[in-house]
Write a structure and sequence with these properties.
Layout lengths: L17 H13 L4 H7 L4 H4 L3 E2 L7 E2 L16 H35 L11 H10 L9 H17 L13 H10 L6 H11 L8 H31 L5 E5 L9 E7 L2 H11 L2 H9 L5 E6 H11 L3 E3 L4 H6 L5 E4 L8 H6 L4 E4 L10 E2 L7 H15 L13 E5 L3 H7 L9 H9 L4 E5 L11 H12 L2 E6 H9 L13 H10 L4 E5 L4 H14 L11 E5 L5 H12 L3 E4 L9 H15 L2 E4 L3 H18 L17 H18 L17 E3 L5 E3 L6
Parallel strand pairs: 4-5, 4-7, 5-6, 7-8, 8-9, 11-12, 11-14, 12-13, 14-15, 15-16
Antiparallel strand pairs: 1-2, 3-10, 17-18
The chain binds FE(4)-NI(1)-S(4) cluster (XCC) and iron/sulfur cluster (SF4).
Length: 698
């Protein structure tokens, strides 16, 4: 594997984002380090990186190295396949635990709302509550909202620790998929149980068969995709509204020189939703003005950002590798963090500036931070306290350096909204998309998801894949930090339709959606499972996810959650390709099991291809092979001519132009919906009014 991740990168090769490069030069000028510069001196340990290190017991750590490494064993006799697979399975369990614990907290919040203990929150999307109640077998007719919500919360919470039965949401998979899981014995039972079982099996001296270990990893991952993450998405929609498209902005330039800047970073929407309200509270805005600022500006980083971008249009300051860069601007009064993807480096770094780092979860403290514990029973007070801390801190600002980069984007595509776009609320379907794939106007579907990783050039792999896919008529969905990367590079703006291939362009214009759809945060990868399942069952493209001309990519993966996501997509029948480096590359056996082995077993697989060209070539090969297997016409771009702009897109462009003009005049417009709203969905316009469009729905 000759990836270049071990060389010291010149600054220009650290990111393709000009804002990041500007801030890295600024950091160097200030003599401050970042993850980017630390990566130059901290090389990945090649033994651990490749999966050849076992530190499961204290007879080791055992490291299998050398030319004959695969013939060696650890002291207990564990071979390379076992060692690499065990480590991989534990990564899956770690990722599942993270997403699912987040999901559990969402269910706890819903419960507190239902029992009237969570002031400031309410069930915002009753329609979604009814749909979810239906999935969970909870009666709805003639019942009060909070009565239903309480049952939904309790059944959701049961999914974590139930002593018998399977995770209910597995029934949302295609019948074929459910049967396959049953036959293989990998239907997940209870979320916590699958995590515990992997931890048990991978304890010293238990499961010592690579194939069996990896099979348990598949089962565990399904407890995330069709369990914790899917519940998290659904309950977030119930509490904060199912997203529908709106426009906003992305990159560090969304920070405002003359306003109190508050950044939310992490993963949960719970406190951040309250901070949205607090940042728009006239009383607090008046206090900010009294402190000499023009107002309060809230922006996000990582998936907390995606959660509030999708629902309130709050601008995104950047993805994972932007967290330190945001502090380096000197313009952040408070950075509020909850859980996951938060660098400890923020502690000491924020102390070099006036920035107050605020931790809020009892699960996640950082030395150097101020801890203001979030408790859903007094959320509005906590949010106000944090905003007041920021206001008081405004006067302490030193010199600031905000790079002037901010791209417009459209975000907020839920599965529900896509249904609506393709047939209206009462006849929602995926028929137009399926027909377009069958005809070859759309060559296939690609999900480009996941993290940033300093071992590769920031955003490069993600943006390269998005760019090439849409040019080759592959429709793209994005989530997490990959969505943010695509947005920073301009690929989430409707303007990008001009860069799409002719077939894709024609279809996108007809349906009225852009070629790259932002589906949300990382737990919202569950939305992609729902979309793929519906495409598979709509007709004409086989019967299951493994029949579809689709591929999932995670070019710049970094954490265990990404591994859990990749694994549940594979277990659901998708071909998945990760970049960076394979955590099992030291083992030919584990690599074989996760590729051809899993393909035979579940129809999907997990490959690691660090080279962007090779990753892309393999993606098209997989998509075209599925087209051929379905006996669809081979993709032929020459048969579609350029079509004119649809009225729909002309409208969006006009809207964005107006918005830019208004922004120029200082009118706050981020978060305005750019699409006609789906009936039954609502948008908070930030002025305290919620516009619901649910007439006509019983
Ligand atoms: Fe974290 Fe979700 Fe990865 Fe980004 S993409 S670095 S997990 S924030 Ni989830
Ligand atoms: Fe070594 Fe076996 Fe202990 Fe792992 S479990 S550290 S391979 S002795």
């Amino acid at each position: 594997m000759d990836d270049k991740s071990n060389d010291v990168k010149p600054v220009a090769a650290k990111s393709i984002d000009p804002a990041a490069l500007e801030m890295l030069a600024h950091a160097e000028g200030c003599g401050l380090e970042t993850a980017f510069s630390r990566a130059d001196t901290m090389k990945p340990c090649p033994i651990g990186e490749s999966g050849a290190c076992c530190r499961i017991c204290s007879m080791g750590p055992c490291r299998l190295v050398g030319k004959d490494a695969e013939e060696k064993t650890g002291i207990c006799g564990a071979d390379m396949g076992t060692i690499a697979s065990r480590h991989f399975a534990r990564q899956v369990a770690g990722g599942v635990a993270a997403h699912s614990d987040h999901g559990r907290d969402m269910a706890m919040t819903l419960r507190a709302v239902a029992t009237g203990e969570a002031a400031g929150y309410k069930v915002k999307d009753e329609q979604k509550l009814h749909v979810v109640a239906g999935y969970l077998g909870i009666p709805t007719s003639g019942r009060e909202v909070n009565e239903i919500a309480l049952d939904v919360a309790d059944v959701a919470l049961q999914q974590f620790g139930q002593s018998h039965g399977d995770i209910v949401y597995t029934k949302r998979a295609t019948p074929k998929r459910q049967a396959k899981w049953r036959e293989l014995g990998i239907t997940p039972r209870a979320i916590d149980r699958e995590v515990v079982e992997v931890m048990h099996r991978t304890h010293e001296g238990v499961d010592l068969d690579a194939e069996n270990i990896l099979k348990s990893a598949l089962r565990c991952s399904l407890a995330d995709g069709w369990g914790g993450a899917m519940l998290s998405t659904d309950i977030s929609d119930i509490l904060f509204g199912t997203p529908s498209p709106l426009s906003s902005e992305v990159n560090l330039g969304v920070l405002k020189a003359d306003q109190v800047n508050v950044i939310v970073h992490g993963h949960e929407p719970t406190l951040s939703a309250m901070l949205v309200e607090a940042s728009r509270d006239p009383e607090l805005i008046a206090e900010a003005k009294a402190a000499g600022a023009e107002g309060i500006n809230l922006a996000g980083i990582c998936c907390t950002s995606n959660e509030i971008l999708m629902r309130y249009g709050i601008p995104a300051a950047g993805n994972f590798l932007h967290q330190e860069l945001a502090v380096l601007t000197g313009a952040v009064e408070v950075m509020v963090v909850d859980v996951q993807c938060i660098m400890q480096a923020l502690g000491p770094l924020s102390q070099r500036f006036h920035t107050k780092l605020v931790t809020t979860s009892p699960k996640a403290k950082i030395p150097g931070a101020t801890h203001i514990e979030f408790d859903e029973h007094r959320a509005p007070e906590t949010a106000n306290e944090i905003v007041r801390l920021a206001i008081a801190n405004y006067a302490n600002r030193g010199p600031i350096h905000i790079p002037d980069y901010h791209e417009p984007l459209v975000a907020g595509f839920s599965h529900e909204y896509l249904n609506y776009m393709q047939g209206g609320f009462h006849r929602g379907s995926f028929r137009p998309l399926n027909d377009a794939i069958i005809a070859g106007r759309v060559r296939g579907l690609a999900g480009v998801v996941g993290c940033n990783n300093v071992r590769v050039t920031q955003d490069e792999g993600i943006v390269e894949m998005i760019k090439r896919f849409i040019a080759d008529d592959v429709m793209v969905v994005v989530t997490g930090c990959a969505a943010n990367a695509g947005a920073k590079a301009g690929y989430l703006s409707p303007e990008i339709l001009d860069h799409a291939g002719p077939g894709l362009r024609e279809v996108m214009e007809a349906i009225g959606i852009p070629p790259v759809l932002h589906l949300g945060s990382c737990v919202d990868n569950s939305r992609i499972l729902t979309v793929l399942t519906q495409v598979a069952t709509e007709g004409g493209l086989g019967e299951d996810i493994d029949d579809l001309p689709a591929v999932g990519l995670c070019p710049e993966w970094m954490c265990e959650k990404a591994i859990a996501i990749g694994t549940y997509f594979a277990a659901s029948g998708a071909h998945v390709i990760f970049g960076v480096s394979s955590p099992v590359k030291a083992s030919t056996e584990a690599t074989r099991l996760m590729t051809t082995g899993w393909e035979e077993m579940v129809g999907g697989d997990l490959e690691f291809i660090p080279d962007w060209d090779a990753m892309y070539a393999r993606s098209l090969e997989l998509i075209d092979a599925k087209r051929a297997a379905l006996k669809l016409p081979a993709y032929d771009p020459s048969q579609y001519g350029d079509s004119g702009d649809s009225l729909f897109f002309a409208e969006i462009k006009r809207y964005l132009a107006d918005q830019a003009a208004e922004a120029e005049r200082g009118v706050e417009t981020v978060g305005s919906p750019v699409y006609p709203l789906a009936e039954g969905h609502s948008h908070d316009h930030g002025d305290g009014h919620t516009h619901s469009h649910d007439e006509g729905e019983a």
